[in-house]
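Cross-posted from the bioinformatics board.
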Amino acid sequence: MVKFSRDFFQDKEVLFVGYSSRNKAYSNGILQGFMNNNIKVYPYNTKENATYDTKVYKELEEIPVMPKSAFVLLNKANSDHVVQQLIGKGIKKILFYSKINADLQAECDKAGVEIAFGCPLMAYGKGMHKIHAFFAGVK
Amino acid sequence: MNTFPLIRTRGSNEHIMATLFVVLILYHLPIWAENPANIFRLVLLVATGLAVDAIANLLRYKRMWCCVSGGITAAIISLLCNGVPLEAQFLGVVVALILGKHLWGGTGNNIFNPAMVGVLIILLGWNVPYPFVNNHYLLIPAIILCITFLFIRPYAGLGFIAGAIVMLIIGRDFTLVNVLSSGLFFWACIVMTDTVTITRERWKGLVLGVIVGMVAFLYPKDIRYIVILVLSANLISYFLNTRIRNEHTIHGNLKIPKVFHYDECQFVDLTKEKPNNEVIKEEPNNEVTELDNVDLSSEELIMLLKRNEVYGMGGAAFPTDQKLAALNSYTEGDKFLIINAVECDPGLVHDDFILHKYPDELRKAIEILKENFEFKTIYLALKNNYNIKLGEDIHLHNVNNRYPAGAEKLLIREVLTIDLNKHQIPVQRGILVLNIQTIYAIYKAVFCNESDNTRFITVANRKDATAKIVKVRLGMKVHEVLESVYPGESHCFVGGGMMQAHLGDEQEVVDRRVNFITNGAFPKFKESPQCSHCGNCVSNCPASLQVNKIVKLVDQGKLHDTIKYRVDECIECACCSYSCLAGRNLSSKVKEAKLVSH
């Protein structure tokens, strides 16, 4: 596990797993944060019959070029399931929004996947997010 | 993918709430002048109100939302119940927010004014002195500022003032001191303008206000009557608001200033073999062979347009030959041609460009249409432009600077004063509406026999509020177009205009509906669940839809229930999203419901 920082997404590409199917402002804010920092985002959500504010991929196979980094905005149960797929697709770095269980963490370590925890807006957001970043020690 | 306007109103519910809070602070000045210790009472009450509202919002929405309305409820109770013990005021604030607001579903869902509920509870156990202040002249700043709230819900508030003044005159009590001390403006401008609990209907609201004002001022010394009357007005408003409106009038209300101006714009041609990214300052040249005269029958003209794939360039992309064929079969009366150069979208400038740069070509195309279809009158509809001359027999019609004045049926009503309902197709009534760029495409199809796969679009840089008119080829990638015109941009928004854009996909190409490409950040839709029922979405809807009710049903997942609110008549102009004070992209919700209604 590494400390999350601005350099985490050096590849300038990220797979955004769990983009809100209701286009929640929070999800949208993270998307904008990435985009404002010139990070190409591939939002991903498997939910059917949802309309999005951006192009969202329903299958990992649809993504034209699989990025090496991912941001996972899912609860613990869903994270378990999706991480297996991400490892299988060659993802090398994952930023989790919420904590994951120890087994999954060990699995990521075994697969050589670098993981971190935190909110991307600490690094790429403005205003209050900067204060959050200050207290969390994110640079 | 959802579309959204890239600009929106600067106002928000929070701005209104903050101003209202300032007014209420000013109303407290006479109380504080008598006893400065009352400042702490207000601080404690407001803190309680904010805390209760914040906790309730947190429990309901699982996140923090604005809780200023809780502070306002507390400030109103503090003002009206000045003189009762602090614990009674605390009780009033807590009961007001829980019983008067959050039990109904939170901000925007309550039937009764929460502050009035709180005051009523206090009245049950304590004696509340009235009027609430003695030093009346200190109220003047508050009164002046609170009058501005009449603009939010004018009818009930004005009615209340009228009714109260009538009663004061009848009772021979109409003096400045009485007007100030009775709290007339407080009730009229603050309580009777509450957007959530007072009806927005004009005449019914006015009558309701007059009745409440008159009855309340029969007993001006007793607050109980006023509180009960206001609560009754809230109940009546609730029933009035549940009515399904069936107005079918279409109108354009929204005044949105142009973001870019044609005079300041430059032209870029990206259609050449080796695209010239340099800005061309002089007029673009046509490097095609042009016929001076053509002699075609209407059928031949229609066939020619079909062969050259001329389509509506305004955004609908409807085949022009089909429109003309329908017009050709119309024999029942006079025919009219309306050339749409209104360009009502605040982000577009290319129609103005075409109008100025290609007058001869436009004139020729109009002439051949006129010869074949024998229009009684030809109108050129535009905004604030008196210097264009396309021909003696082309009538200039200056359209009101309102959005979406260029929508087909709105334009017909504006120009010909003919109302067409949703089932009536203009060409079947002898009315042909063509976009100015479509006229230019007709010229190229007829006089140059050219199947035109190019078009003019507006490419804008929202960061420095500049735009360029760009000639593009259909099928070009929108990201590449933006990169050619404004290099180094990662965001790309694309659509029919600034009011109907979406985030451009990397593979997305310029198609027949694309009129606008731009960069810049996402528009700030905070998607607050706290609708204040300001009514902006309804009053600005060109199709007179009850947008707030449609959206509420969509949020509840009852998409099929929206049909009764005529959701299929939505023209997708996004006026509702532009004007929503809660910062919601309402048009995407209405569009979702519209898809189900089909």
